[in-house]
Design brief:
Number of strands: 13
Strand content: 25-35%
Helix content: 10-25%
Order of helices and strands: HHEEEEEEEEEEEEE
Number of helices: 2
Radius of gyration: 37 Å
Shape: globular
Structural class: alpha+beta
Length: about 220
């Protein structure tokens, strides 16, 4: 009888030890599962706050013929210039200038012109009727590097430059005519600025006037 009781006690103790080991292994497994890193499948909120896609634009190209120009806030300056007949000529020295030097030049329209360098700017507002227009500039440059400048129309920026190589006398920027369309009468702000890029910065060149001609309805 004693041997039988001892046998049952031995079996009970072994079962308890086995049960305890199984529970410990289970807890360890759960603990390892809980601490496993969660896959990064959520989207960062900052990534969602991206800017709307911008239209790709090559500054070295002129606007396409008949491209529509949207109205934009007018620049702060003198009274806007009125467009009359089929075309007008806006003297650069009469615009709002910054970093430009007005010089006497008997060969220029109005006997004056503007000398441009790095950081030079000019702006003017023009009242335009609906239609298709072309803008050209009268420029005098002596070397290709630094003889280019930028023109902003309706919020878009374009590059203008003279002949290659420059003629060294007054010439129109026929290589880069700015052709655009105005869907309805509006006041268009036009800004001109030299290049400030390192290695490509605008150097000494001269601008006489801006010519705007209506080429179509």
């Amino acid at each position: 009888m004693k041997r039988l009781c001892k046998f049952f006690l031995t079996i009970f103790a072994a079962g308890f030890i086995f049960s305890s080991c199984a529970t410990t292994d289970s807890v360890a497994a759960v603990s390892e599962t809980d601490t496993e890193p969660i896959a990064a499948d959520t989207t960062d909120i900052a990534d969602e706050k991206t800017e709307p896609p911008q239209e790709s634009f090559d500054e070295k190209s002129a606007p396409e013929s008949g491209e529509s120009i949207a109205e934009e806030p007018q620049s702060k300056g003198p009274r806007p210039v009125d467009f009359v007949h089929r075309g007008i000529k806006c003297e650069i020295e009469d615009m709002v200038l910054s970093g430009c030097q007005i010089v006497d030049d008997t060969s220029a329209s109005g006997k004056k012109s503007t000398r441009w360098g790095t950081g030079s700017m000019a702006s003017v507002d023009v009242n335009l009727p609906a239609g298709v227009f072309e803008i050209l500039f009268s420029e005098k440059a002596f070397q290709t590097p630094g003889s280019h400048f930028f023109v902003t129309l309706g919020g878009r920026k374009f590059e203008c430059f003279p002949s290659e190589p420059p003629l060294g006398t007054w010439e129109l920027t026929l290589r880069t005519p700015l052709v655009f369309k105005i869907p309805e009468p509006m006041t268009l702000s036009i800004s001109i600025e030299s290049d400030r890029s390192y290695g490509y910065a605008s150097q000494d060149f001269f601008l006489d006037y801006m010519q705007i001609v209506k080429t179509g309805d």
